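Tokens as discussed.
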């Protein structure tokens, strides 16, 4: 399994991190992708990934909820960090053991977490849209996929993504309708499926009917969104097994097959195209 969206830089994981990661590996987790959320998260994301450069893989971006008055300054700081990381570290395929002479430095695998969120506040709605466009330009420039956050903003999100047909990525923590799922997949994006699909009243399983398993990737959004039977606890990547079991019911296959396909999907997507 690959956890394509895990905030392992969260302070909740700081104590005993090495042992925690060993538990995830023992639980079948092959790699974890760690998105940033603003300029202040750059240091923490890169540092934790540098400690485990063959297991944790970073992304950088400005989360829509963090688009405030200083959004332009934040984007300047983030773009400088993206430029510096990719210029100073020759890119190699991840999940491949590095030579002893290769610098122990994490390579960015995506731009994210970015997107639109109109759920709580639309004060900076226009700024969110411009910030999303700017970061999609970075993804296009560097041939990187994106991690898209979209809440109560599907129409605008899809409209902006269509302006960048060469950029692909994941619709993170997808919980939209079947119609939106079809549009996302038609655009060449993947759906990130996490613990919410195990929740009692969740309709996501119904919305995935007809959507190819080959367009899904697994994720946690840890430390949030732990699946049943651990709902409400600090999430762990190894618990994606419960997500795989639920998807196996939807796709009439085994959880092992779900893990095999979604792992291949993640590896295919998160490879720099330049």
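Sequence:
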């Amino acid at each position: 399994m690959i956890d394509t969206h895990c905030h392992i830089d969260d302070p909740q994981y700081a104590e005993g991190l090495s042992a925690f990661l060993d538990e995830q590996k023992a639980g079948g987790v092959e790699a974890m992708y760690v998105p940033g959320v603003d300029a202040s998260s750059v240091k923490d994301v890169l540092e934790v990934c540098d400690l485990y450069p063959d297991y944790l893989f970073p992304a950088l971006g400005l989360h829509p909820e963090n688009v405030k008055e200083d959004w332009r300054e934040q984007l300047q700081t983030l773009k400088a960090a993206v430029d510096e990381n990719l210029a100073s570290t020759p890119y190699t395929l991840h999940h491949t053991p590095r030579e002893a002479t290769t610098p122990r430095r994490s390579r960015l695998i995506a731009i994210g977490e970015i997107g639109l969120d109109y759920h709580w506040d639309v004060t900076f709605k226009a700024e969110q849209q411009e910030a999303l466009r700017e970061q999609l330009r970075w993804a296009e420039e560097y041939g990187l996929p994106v991690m898209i956050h979209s809440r109560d903003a599907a129409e605008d999100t899809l409209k902006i993504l269509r302006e960048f047909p060469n950029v692909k990525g994941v619709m993170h923590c997808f919980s939209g309708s079947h119609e939106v799922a079809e549009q996302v997949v038609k655009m060449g994006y993947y759906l990130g499926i996490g613990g919410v699909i195990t929740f009692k009243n969740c309709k996501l399983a119904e919305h995935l009917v007809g959507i190819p398993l080959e367009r899904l990737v697994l994720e946690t959004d840890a430390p949030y969104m732990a699946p049943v039977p651990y709902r409400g606890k600090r999430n762990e990547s190894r618990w994606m097994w419960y997500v795989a079991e639920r998807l196996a019911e939807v796709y009439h296959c085994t959880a092992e097959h779900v893990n095999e396909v979604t792992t291949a999907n993640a590896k295919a997507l998160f490879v720099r195209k330049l």
